[in-house]
Amino acid sequence: MMTETKYTAETIKYLRLLSEKYPSKRAVTREIINLNAILNLPKGTEHFMSDLHGEFEAFRHILNNCSGVVREKVERLYGGVLSDDEIKEICTLIYYPVEKLRLLKKSGGISREQYGFMLEHMLEIARVLSSKYTRSKVRKAMPEDYAYIIDELLHAQKDEDDNQIVYHRNILDAIISLDADDFVVSLAGLIKRLAVDHLHIVGDIFDRGDSADKIIDLLMTYHSIDVEWGNHDILWMGAAAGSEVCVAGVVRNCVNYNAVRTLESGYGISLRSLALLSERLYPDFEPMKAVLAAITVMQFKLEGQLIKRNPDFLMNDRLLLDKIDYNNFTVSVDGVTYKINTTCFPTVDPSDPYALTDEESEVIADLKAAFTGSPQLKNQITFLYDNGGMYRIFNGNLLYHGCVPLNDDGRLKEISLFGETYSGKKLFDMAEIKARSAFFSKKKEQSELDFMWYLRCAENSPLCGRKTKAFERAYIADKTAWHENKNPYYRYYYDKNTCEMILEEFGLSSPTAHIINGHTPVQTIKGELPIRAEGKLLVIDGGFCRNYHAKTGIAGYTLIYNSHGLRLKAHMPFESIDEALRENRDICSSSEIVETEQRRVMVYATDDGDLIQKDIADLCMLLDFYRRGTIVPKE
User: Fold this and answer.
1) How many angstroms separate the CA atoms of 288 and 450, rounded?
2) What confidence tens digit (pLDDT) does each residue in 306-362 have?
3) How many separate helices (H) and strands (E) can be counted in the chain?
4) Which tens digits make up the pLDDT trace of 571-605?
5) Which residues does residue 42 pair with via DSSP β-bridges, in sequence order?
């Protein structure tokens, strides 16, 4: 037995506070027993997704089917018992209960027998999925209005006279008579909630697709989630913080990729002032091409100003407006002269090419006010800050979107910024501090706002890691000028020793640790594989974005980590939710086992398990105090 001298004053104070929650020896003992039981349950399923790029329908479907986990459970339960069409019908009902019920009613109605079929099978699916959780946790996951009823139905026990079976059948009959639709919707939500315990989004919610706002709306309702920021996310975060160059970059991307709906309908950001100026500047252009031409010039002007006031960013090679020969309309890039594809630069003064005109300044000020003043954008960006970061260590794995900058020899690259030198984890930590300050500080520091753009597109940025060629892609037809040099990381992340070095840099030395990486689309069509470095690193950007499908050959990778091990899921393109509803069509997905655990992973081997074991240790100390009378229990 430990003596009182073993405990500090702070520990005793803490235990007195803990005794208010567990005021008796019985309460402490009961909680220790409960926590020990939880430790020996299988770990919950983690679901990893990356590079969503505003593709809402495909994202929603994979979120609903939990990367095929739901379909696998249904087939395991009912394969050989139900027909393939019946299995598909049940799965679609779980994915889209509201829409599917509406469609069934339009096509002839739903009989009592059909409702009974749905509910009986959905309850069995929920019962199987709930088996790895405590009854208390399952109860908390249930919709409040039906928690008692669902709890009763999930725990039906066959007795001698079948009284329980009759009791539960009567409950179902009453549900069908009163409000079956609402109950089906609630049950479908519970199934999806139980199928995945935690969701990881490994960067780039924003970019080419036009519905990033819808994706974040859905993520904000998710029960347990983290987000590792991507380079496209940080661009929007910088715009919401008030960075003018980030504002211009966001607008240009939205116009260039026909994603203006996100700005106007999603966030209430009007492009009217920009459109009016564009019409005057480029009267011979189609309206949206005029808008694109105008905002492109503004972006490169603002980018040039940023580069000049931040010499430590080492981005002088991106100063190209002053390299244009405005008589011959050529540009010199890295010593090579290229013909440019336009002769129209009505706002560029060759003697001072990075200066905004008064009209351009007014438009940028108007757009900046719209971004910083949008309540919806502020709410969603705050969600990304509250639930996100530059990286995440979770259950022994390291998650980040971009790269850990390396030298040519494979060692961590030292990068000088803001008067100090950073590398590895220290670079990531500094970047997160700066990114948070840029958004939350009341007094905005221009250097921090500028740093958001650096994170978006600099070769040494841990969110980018390549020399972006936005200027060349905009103005040079010769695609040889478009090649973007990448940080050596993208060569070395095939090497097991390098990946183990990175993991150790972030404090992970376990042989079971992995790096989960996004950012670079896996070109499956060319034979590329998402598994790198003998399984130490997994790239899960397989091309969610429709624009990438021809390049990648698939429509995205996701990752499932459950108590049995790691599995990569490769997904084929998703047509539409309408087609999924009408034809019960699912995304065609293939599964590849990355790693199988020799022994099933239990909660005690997870981050939650570590916290629970600390709680048990605290409760054991409190019980010791109760037994010795140091703290008097309220029996």
Assistant:
1) 28
2) 999 999 999 999 999 999 999 999 999 999 999 999 999 999 999 999 999 999 999
3) 28, 17
4) 766 666 777 677 676 655 566 677 777 789 999 99
5) 602
* φ/ψ (deg, to 5) at 319: -85, 95
**φ and ψ at residue 466, rounded to 5 degrees:** -150, 160
Q: Which two tokens stand for residue 295?
A: 């905002």
Q: 253-271 in b/e burial notation, b at 16+ Cβ within 10 A?
A: bbbbbebbebbeebbebeb
Quick one: DSSP state of residue 534? Answer: G
Q: What is the pTM of this model?
A: 0.92
Strand partners, 458: none
Give the DSSP H/E element, type plus range, for residue 302.
helix 287-309
SS3 at position 133: coil
CA pair distance 10, 16, nearest whole angstrom: 10
CB 101 within 8 A of CB 109: no
Phi and psi at residue 423, to the nearest 5°? -155, 160
Residue 142 corresponds to which tokens in the numbers above? 């249930």
Cα 585 to Cα 172, 305, 530, 574, distances in angstroms: 29, 51, 26, 9
How many CB atoms are located within 10 Å of the residue 7 CB? 17
In this structure, which amino acid lies at residue 72?
E
3-state secondary structure of 494: coil
Measured distance CA(617)–CA(416) in Å, rounded: 44
Between the alpha carbon of residue 367 and those of residues 30, 293, 355, 362, 536, the distances in Å are 59, 16, 18, 9, 44
Residue 41 φ/ψ, nearest 5 degrees: -90, 155
